[in-house]
Records
---
Amino acid sequence: MPLHQFHFNASISSSSSPFLAPPSAFNSFSSRHQNFSLPPRDLGICRCVATPQEAKTPTAYKTNVSRNANMGKLQAGYLFPEVARRRNAHKEKYPDAQVISLGIGDTTEPIPDVITSSMSKKCQALSTLEGYSGYGAEQGEKSLRAAIRSTFYADLGIDDDDIFVSDGAKCDISRLQAYVDSSVIMGQTGQFQTDVEKYANIEYMNCTPENGFFPDLSKSPRTDIIFFCSPNNPTGAAATREQLTRLVQFAKDNGSIIVYDSAYALYMSDDNPRSIFEIPGAREVAIETSSFSKYAGFTGVRLGWTVVPKELLFSDGFPVARDFNRVVCTCFNGASTVAQAGGLACLSPEGLKAMHEVIGFYKGNTEIIMDTFNSLGFKVYGGRNAPYVWVHFPGRSSWDVFAEILEKTHVVTTPGSGFGPGGEGFVRVSAFGHRGNVLEACKRFRQLYK
Amino acid sequence: MPLHQFHFNASISSSSSPFLAPPSAFNSFSSRHQNFSLPPRDLGICRCVATPQEAKTPTAYKTNVSRNANMGKLQAGYLFPEVARRRNAHKEKYPDAQVISLGIGDTTEPIPDVITSSMSKKCQALSTLEGYSGYGAEQGEKSLRAAIRSTFYADLGIDDDDIFVSDGAKCDISRLQAYVDSSVIMGQTGQFQTDVEKYANIEYMNCTPENGFFPDLSKSPRTDIIFFCSPNNPTGAAATREQLTRLVQFAKDNGSIIVYDSAYALYMSDDNPRSIFEIPGAREVAIETSSFSKYAGFTGVRLGWTVVPKELLFSDGFPVARDFNRVVCTCFNGASTVAQAGGLACLSPEGLKAMHEVIGFYKGNTEIIMDTFNSLGFKVYGGRNAPYVWVHFPGRSSWDVFAEILEKTHVVTTPGSGFGPGGEGFVRVSAFGHRGNVLEACKRFRQLYK
């Protein structure tokens, strides 16, 4: 499941990640409560979680190996399994209904031929003596690293070897251990607090229409890691240059590291920064991770990258990139050569043109969805800069609205509260879908809310 | 770089892996010294390690984030960088020499067309509306999991959903955190002890000709994890059914978990178990990891798998597979759909035939190398069950022999002592190479040692 179902933004106190000091190295964790919380991270990720009952097996023998107690802190999947459960129940109730899913954020359109042709050629080459290649560099092929730099980071002071090619942003984030579930697994968070629906030791940054979907940094305590996703999923909000300049300054004042998820950058219509590294000084405080998934439909092909500038240093002056490189070399063996051939094709002039056409198609879907809800008098957010429309139903329960839409229109959306209490009263409508389905869904929305 | 450059066998006391309890949960670690040690794990893995000097940059600003002190325990890469340094120096000295590399264990032969054709078709399908697919299951496609089970684990009591498809055994092992460098990074080992060339809190299991390359379990202390690689790299030794039966019993008596690396199983000539699960009771104490890399030349395509039986339980009765599944779902997004299409083709009747032909070719190389050294009066080990020949030069320094062979024959091998002190007096000759190069190298060996 996609990384950018890492919703809203969060900052993490300390870490026991492969490259950050373990919690034990810290005297104390702040665990102040914010008025807004992240969902248990696995919601969109792990669709097959054990319940204690399931876990029991008839086997008598047990090893003497203790389970990692941190695993027990993980909350069972809820949002997407629950959405799926309700969709299935609905299909049983209305076996003949044409159910349309605008819920989960998975790509639906074919990969442009110019890209798949290159991948296909690479596969064929692997069966020839001249074209065969074995192990590649863990950091990715030089040509691809160079193409990513020149395409996305030209004139931003980023070098080719600052780019680490990965099998997807989610995997890199987990290697970074900035990922909430990973953080829980590594024991850097406290228990999940059901009352506030958040893990202890993680500061949740409130992003709502009231604050323009940008946190009040004056109220944010210092943390080691600040995870920031822009354009954001699910709100679709993109931070402005002025906001990101404040974020970088905040990180610098606190000596924090920003992990910036820019996986939707090419979806931006506004003149917002496409990369955190457009902000002066960001190379000293930020890591950026991105992916080909939503640009070229590579959700299944698996290809992404992470930028770790040489200027980013630990408190002892050791470059973060050196340790990240070591972690990548130790825990990863490079992205598939076929996927990398596809990535290289994505960044060719024809590939870029084709990628932008796919993105343009999804943005077209987004406009149709936004126009529909706007014309019905709803307040909608996002959309302009991300393939998600965040529709406001003031005073109503997200799950009630979700159920109403499903019951009356046979369209599956995602209840905002599933992303956390701050999402209450909102529903996320995904723009990933075939045009016909999106048009049909909007026609039904108009009938329901006319 | 390949997982099975995880040399010899090691057992690890406790763990702070994603699914094992952190060291803090243990009162004490055993750190008894064995007379044999593993190399610093990154040797074959990380070819770009920072030296403190390199690490320094002119940047003034530092974050307040502490570096993970465990990273500092990692030893700089030595063996393969050093082998490469000497090879390059040799090339400068003899610019016209035809240098042959039988050092590093990377595949050299093309991937059979029946396999690449399926991958190519999958790529083309991704550019069609019908053939496009997005996110797949983190655990891998049902059809591939079923094919792996029926091909490698028929009648062994393994279910399809015990199989977790990965982007390579190395990556899965790192997720398992049984991998030595990962273990160090997660803080489960002590400092590297230069005197004995080993990390504290890791028990090194002595595998030499004297004990038939199988450890004396009566001298082995109890550990949580026992990492066992058979057929072994670099010795090429494959454990017998009787030895593995003792290993399983040893694990059962101690309540340990065996992580069994069987990545060379199809190279076996002897009638040894291809899987640890051929041993009764193994499903209650073992995890098995394997890969398509050395079977189908997938070192760059990236595809492997790990088997975690439901019967394997933590001390509290919780199934290890449930937590491993959660880790995979959290830290991984599934292997590339293209690689999985290739894996499925590998396991078709034609694919299996083609894979065995490639393996047969490398086994042919191995025989040529073994015959050469045998006829020259050397004692050679391995070979019969793995693509590595372990040649004994009693009383001589591995590095001296390596240098002699390189100087006199322009052939690059790997000095045994680079894998650890127990390898002193041995040289590893890899069978991964084009036939012409192997024949030429052997011709030169005959001239040198006639």
---
Amino acid sequence: MIVVMSPNATKKNLENVLKKLEKLNLRTHLSEGEDRTIVGVIGDKKIIANLEMEMMAGVEKTVRITEKYKLVSRDFHPLDTIIDVDGVKIGGEKIVVMAGPCAVESLEQLRETAQAVKSCGAEILRGGAFKPRTSPYDFQGLGEEGLKLLRKVADEFGMKVVTEIVDRSDLELVENYADILQVGARNMQNFQMLKALGESKKPVMLKRGLSATISEWLNAAEYIMSGGNENVIFCERGIRTYETFTRNTLDLSAVAAIKELSHLPIVVDPSHGTGRRTMIAPMSKAAIAAGADALMIEVHPHPEVALSDGNQSLTPESFKNLMNDLNGIAKAVGKTL
Amino acid sequence: MIVVMSPNATKKNLENVLKKLEKLNLRTHLSEGEDRTIVGVIGDKKIIANLEMEMMAGVEKTVRITEKYKLVSRDFHPLDTIIDVDGVKIGGEKIVVMAGPCAVESLEQLRETAQAVKSCGAEILRGGAFKPRTSPYDFQGLGEEGLKLLRKVADEFGMKVVTEIVDRSDLELVENYADILQVGARNMQNFQMLKALGESKKPVMLKRGLSATISEWLNAAEYIMSGGNENVIFCERGIRTYETFTRNTLDLSAVAAIKELSHLPIVVDPSHGTGRRTMIAPMSKAAIAAGADALMIEVHPHPEVALSDGNQSLTPESFKNLMNDLNGIAKAVGKTL
Amino acid sequence: MIVVMSPNATKKNLENVLKKLEKLNLRTHLSEGEDRTIVGVIGDKKIIANLEMEMMAGVEKTVRITEKYKLVSRDFHPLDTIIDVDGVKIGGEKIVVMAGPCAVESLEQLRETAQAVKSCGAEILRGGAFKPRTSPYDFQGLGEEGLKLLRKVADEFGMKVVTEIVDRSDLELVENYADILQVGARNMQNFQMLKALGESKKPVMLKRGLSATISEWLNAAEYIMSGGNENVIFCERGIRTYETFTRNTLDLSAVAAIKELSHLPIVVDPSHGTGRRTMIAPMSKAAIAAGADALMIEVHPHPEVALSDGNQSLTPESFKNLMNDLNGIAKAVGKTL
Amino acid sequence: MIVVMSPNATKKNLENVLKKLEKLNLRTHLSEGEDRTIVGVIGDKKIIANLEMEMMAGVEKTVRITEKYKLVSRDFHPLDTIIDVDGVKIGGEKIVVMAGPCAVESLEQLRETAQAVKSCGAEILRGGAFKPRTSPYDFQGLGEEGLKLLRKVADEFGMKVVTEIVDRSDLELVENYADILQVGARNMQNFQMLKALGESKKPVMLKRGLSATISEWLNAAEYIMSGGNENVIFCERGIRTYETFTRNTLDLSAVAAIKELSHLPIVVDPSHGTGRRTMIAPMSKAAIAAGADALMIEVHPHPEVALSDGNQSLTPESFKNLMNDLNGIAKAVGKTL
């Protein structure tokens, strides 16, 4: 349920509302807009069903939320949430770019990539240390060694680190090195891991599952938020369809959907979303035009020898060209790059 | 097969090449670029398999095309094709906008819509006279009466007409009134109709089938082109996926794919592609950013009483706002609106 | 709307009901069960909305149908419909088998196949004379020559003919030779052709579209039935999914769905449904176990040289083995082969 | 790589082959057929690439496996694997039935269900103690209390227990109570959990992911087998498609595919696969006809008050009727129930 306070409600009015709700053991979530405050309420359904708040001083009206997700809902929190990743802000006017190799392979590879992408404006270094691979016989990532390299190189170039966590028992380990914890598509409904991430202090980037609906995705984020971690970033990375020309079908309408239904920011990953190098530039432009807050792009200094996903990685040079092209689009939608 | 002439080939060299191919009953397709001419060759596979052209004067090399589609392929015709719809050019620097109601309902409805969209810059009037409907008991369109209204109103406002043809026996009738013949998603592989359209002089807009692959779509266009009609325009209108939040999943990566594989222009229809009014603006922007040549948008003066697809139609006012917003995006990709 | 007559309603009661409905220009559809008669009513929605039939003598109750399809609905017609194809009955206790090559290629090919399949119990000869092919450069079928061969060979072996019609202008031609008119997956929503088939006297086999929902499929059948042709047979032939191991995903739950929602019979085509020879036998058994009324199986005397779909065709020998295996399954579900 | 021994190879020949492979640090997997032994070889790809075994005494030939999965492949192990679940054998002549409620709710519910299903022939009791739910606010299962109830009731009625494990840290706990460890669709590619299950001594039932290809599914099983646990059972539970009439699209062709590509047994779950009570019986029959080794069916004494999935649960009475009907189908494919 949402309790909408009237524009001229006093501080005292609000306190009384919150006190009443707390007495009933209900959790509240404040969202202070320019002219009114909105109180989101979650907890025991039966108690909420019988709540009568309209007669309290300062309450304009109450709205029942029928969707199962509450905390992620824009109804609950009408204003855009901006997530502060140790100084880099995702969800505001500035488009954030995350770039780097699919998998961390070596110090040289990572350093070469980081230098190149940072000089073009990328602020967050991406790279997989734990790789979820279809076959047990494929390269599974460097593990903690990879995390150390990410941290070391990111610090060297003044960047932040986003990297995937594939098991909840690795949480403490990955938290030690990463600034954003990435949940991969295959783990979007690994609910035990989501619950664990709900207790982390680090922002979580939640990739959309291979065939997850928008509603399932929002509910997966609700698992994290209901655990107490309010810093959730969505990442559209393509869905599975019948089409085989592209690796996945990048669903940019998901950007518009998330912006409509939720207050949380959204990143687009055109590298996994298309699986084709030539499509990364047009889809990056389209993503920003559609309203995405950030991009996540695979860059490899030598894609032809990459240990994974080489044919969807940009070279540093083509990444540079792309960043130049994106400027105009960002401006056209009232943002900066 | 493609015969690539060398930059310094003479006119005589080219004539000899063409003469040789014609003697073998092969069809040729000329594509004259800035510094070299390319000759596309189609016909009996066995004859082509034994062709030896490399030793002829002026021939630089030959390339075998492995894809089944030839005439639609960018290999065959490297430069962008611009289609001239009686003065309105689709595929060039200017983004073309097609707008109008889902179905033609009355003279008033059409006139009110045409005036509104024309004043904002739309050049082509859309509207269905023959409606393919899931149920036989739903409104099937006004038929020829609808075509007459479209022509009358378009002429009144100096616009062109695009409208759907649902059966090849209607070809002559629809040609009499329309400037562009639209093939709907359900008929994308109605091969008999495609063959008939191959003999028309009017441009054809070929919507992507509900679950058509890029390759099937290109081959469907090849049916039209191989019949002799070179004026084919693709239209992405969303594909069918598991997602239910949107009516279809608008696949903007199809824009990038078509631009890479073919020389023909592509339109995006965000109205059918999303089925949600609030998504039309962000998806229109994204479409242009991705490289689309034109947009097709449903506008209805009173969406709440529309006979079909009311909840995916813009009002004239929101259409006006959209057109303003699109300007900046068009500029950012080097085009005009 | 459905008017359910009470078990002890008299013939006169029924006549009065029908008379009243006819006066209102409503169409009626009688379904006489063992102990009661059901009158299906279709026509002007507003008139039906105001109908009050419950007080008429002999009327037990009325039921409003919310689905758009009426005539195909089991609510309208509770008992199974058995379709009589010139003596061969589809929809009853005997499982009917349709077999033959994908495309008619020659008299020898067809005769060899017909002899083989007839001797194992197949009663209907299948074969394409008009082939809808993805590429305009692929073999498009022998046309009328193919129809003549089908008729000649079927008559020779005492079989019936099922063959595809790809354009409504071919209707008279195909009717002359075929016993069942097949609508292919790509034409399931070619509504103009469905309307034309509604006026034919020949049974129509309606294949499910590549990505048609059960509801769209039922509505497509309603187009045929509402035109006056009550002899419609469904054919499940696999739907398009993300899976690439099989050509399509054969959806046997569609058999159960059709049996629940409609009174019309259903055929399963495991050849197109899987695209893999080794899967035809297990899927044929499963289809019958699920309740299918008939099977449609591609058999080619020499699959390795077939002009189309060779790798999904059985040899006459493997077809024979399959027919033997099917006997037990048919018995287990109370049918015969 | 597979080393095929000749029919007259001696024991000594085989020993020499194994010795040579072990010296090279390659792992071997023996499969002894009626007339020849097959040695599967996995390990360092470069070493295998240079292996020359054909000249060794007793070796008939070697075959290179191009698929990434090895141990699950039928090439590696041509005969059907029968998995012994503490006396109940899955994969042999007898069809095994697993039945029980979706979620364990109480001792009474479980006991009432177990008694009913056991008396009809079900040998394995199913029931979720840890439930993966889309929303964090839905019933998440009774946890260890549920496991205890399952064990208690199963022992009471002489049944085995299959139940889901949702996190690898629960492995020891679930192993204490369950006879088969179920991996749910959402965790099919939770590779860390699969690796942990590879070290368990208990059989694992691996459900197919919501949009997993056959190949991804086989590779997921390879994760478990390559960890050392050879007792893997596949479970087809429906895939996600565009169709909304059913909860999922039950893909029975997956049964035929698994039987062709792998030696491991496969279970079909028509309850989740269709989500509709009326479809469970026809799909159960079809599954057995297609070659399934076992069925997994939701039964609830009072489906109308079930805490989850009530509308896809059979009542004990309808379960009894189903078991009777399945007898004939089992016989028709040479099995018993």
---
Amino acid sequence: MHTLQVSLGERSYPIHIASGLLDRADLLAPHVKAAQAVVVTNETVAPLYLQRLKNTLEKAGVSVIPVILPDGERFKTWETLNLIFDALLGAHCERSTPLIALGGGVIGDMGGFAAACYQRGMPFIQVPTTLLSLVDSSVGGKTAINHPLGKNMIGAFYQPRLVLADIATLDTLPERELRAGLAEVIKYGLIRDPAFLVWLESNLEKLLARDRESLIYAVHRSCANKAEVVAADERESGERALLNLGHTFGHAIETGMGYGAWLHGEAVAAGTMIASELSRLLGWLTADDVERVRRIFSRAGLPVVAPGLGVARYLELMRHDKKVQDGRLRLVLLRSVGQAVLSDVAREDQIGEAIELMCT
Amino acid sequence: MHTLQVSLGERSYPIHIASGLLDRADLLAPHVKAAQAVVVTNETVAPLYLQRLKNTLEKAGVSVIPVILPDGERFKTWETLNLIFDALLGAHCERSTPLIALGGGVIGDMGGFAAACYQRGMPFIQVPTTLLSLVDSSVGGKTAINHPLGKNMIGAFYQPRLVLADIATLDTLPERELRAGLAEVIKYGLIRDPAFLVWLESNLEKLLARDRESLIYAVHRSCANKAEVVAADERESGERALLNLGHTFGHAIETGMGYGAWLHGEAVAAGTMIASELSRLLGWLTADDVERVRRIFSRAGLPVVAPGLGVARYLELMRHDKKVQDGRLRLVLLRSVGQAVLSDVAREDQIGEAIELMCT
Ligand SMILES: NC(=O)c1ccc[n+]([C@@H]2O[C@H](COP(=O)([O-])OP(=O)(O)OC[C@H]3O[C@@H](n4cnc5c(N)ncnc54)[C@H](O)[C@@H]3O)[C@@H](O)[C@H]2O)c1
Ligand SMILES: NC(=O)c1ccc[n+]([C@@H]2O[C@H](COP(=O)([O-])OP(=O)(O)OC[C@H]3O[C@@H](n4cnc5c(N)ncnc54)[C@H](O)[C@@H]3O)[C@@H](O)[C@H]2O)c1
Ligand SMILES: [Zn+2]
Ligand SMILES: [Zn+2]
């Protein structure tokens, strides 16, 4: 088992990474010092893993209150969040009752936000079961729900007490979701870890074949990158923003196409292509660099062209995004392959040109 | 002008207390470094003070986005909170846009929770306009909304950058609201400041007559007490719980009677009488002590008997309250007049007896 520590002073917490951790009562018990715990999951994940987690908790003397939500990004709303609150209040949960999120990023983001708000904060544990949530959303304490006018607009910074990363849960993950998760893995290589990018270029097929050791390595190295960034900048006032490579464009794609049509990772891949093209227009990347980025995404089966929403619509959607500061678009761009920067030097016509060039 | 500092490390902030502060652009400007600011207020307070605050902000070069909510505790809900989010998103507010709450505790609690959640946190300023919000809710960073199953169940700890306490706003406060606010003022004397209680016993009539100097003194001393407690225990893991004297019983009264029937301060006064009676049953207060508590509340025009909901209903409602730990009721009681303790020694039959004795 690998263990990483996210260093955030009194809010520090461990990430345990291995196969089969769902059965490890010894890892959960130190963080669940209560007679009962809430497990928030969804209709897809519950039949696969809820009973096992329940058995493990019961072994540790903890009885489980399950909250089973509908599945899907379109349910990442206040209405669904309220289902969690109703269950917590219905079961008379106390502020000391731990809440465990068992599922992908949607469950983690909603479970975390519910834990942050219920009685102003209850202990929170992440048990991520998608590649995206293993390498990204479960680490770092961002929680949120969507608003009809924008993704992740309502939320909190709220750190978990523990992340239990059971790689074996990836066995049941649909192919398309695995590929979407790879977009965020590749992202770490692009923004700050060029050696990891080289490793990915050599091992992509093994990851796609779900080779367990390769997956453990990729999750571990991704989490290590994310943990470093988060430790340096918990509330995204600086370096942490670099994790949003491709995301401002990506969120525009997700919103513009209607939540759920494009997976988050797919939108991030296409968005990263626009960001790469813009970096080329600014003279930072060569055409070969852009081609290298395109190749790795395309080998991972991810979209490398963006949907043709029209430049005006992209810009409108991006202005709603929270990466706007004093009205000027601040974007994460690539200074080189392996080094991202946050910059507002791109003029609107250049942004528009990059979008045009990358759209179908 | 008096200025107090709430000492919370990098989250420290000043409380300015005086008459006429709504006009002081110089005090607001250092905390509103943006081209626009949101002012959240309600239909009652807006006609009284919104234009003045707007003029002051405009003098500082800040344009105002007003959000005018319906008035009342029954609107302290998710639906109303969403009206704030709709306005913020509609006006393309950024995470750097400051949100100013202008009103009583309901506006402060909702405005603060909206500021905590919008894009995971925007700068927040409190401009309290009721006695209760001046002496209690605007200081300390507790924000919340209600849930049908319990008061203040959903919220966040989120500190303001500034509290602007303009005592002149009390001129227009309805008599009943002024008296309700006095319940929280008296509370500070009862739980930790016996000398202040003696001062209150001598100056209560002046406060009721809205003598400005007396009000400034009472607000200042109340805020100083609250600031000390909050600085020592921001997230209510210890001493801060003592601020809830009378509140567990009070919340049961508020919920049991239907939100809004009893004012918060009225419920706290009656709840404090039950807590005092229970403290007497435990041998901590004398009958004379209880009488002293009754006299000061009754001189302030506050209820000193609780509504007859029945003991079973009280206990049921109290179990929903967040002051329950591991199933046992932890209550704030009085060791002596001027010194509160958090204790779970009271047996359920004693709690029931105290309720019976204090009910109509
Ligand atoms: N908080 C953050 O820092 C952060 C970072 C990135 C993304 N996100 C958020 O994460 C969300 C996307 O997360 P996601 O990609 O995990 O999507 P998801 O949670 O919707 O999961 C994808 C699908 O896989 C299913 N599933 C989950 N685990 C499975 C398993 N082991 N076997 C079979 N099926 C399984 C889910 O039920 C769902 O249908 C977005 O809402 C995004 O905004 C948050
Ligand atoms: N956050 C905390 O730490 C904390 C502490 C105590 C209470 N609270 C909360 O505060 C709320 C009660 O606050 P409140 O007593 O201020 O009630 P409130 O906000 O409802 O205000 C009382 C009434 O006075 C009106 N009003 C406000 N200012 C006025 C003015 N200057 N002139 C005329 N009318 C005015 C309001 O519109 C309202 O009708 C409750 O929801 C309670 O839960 C929070
Ligand atoms: Zn992402
Ligand atoms: Zn109170």
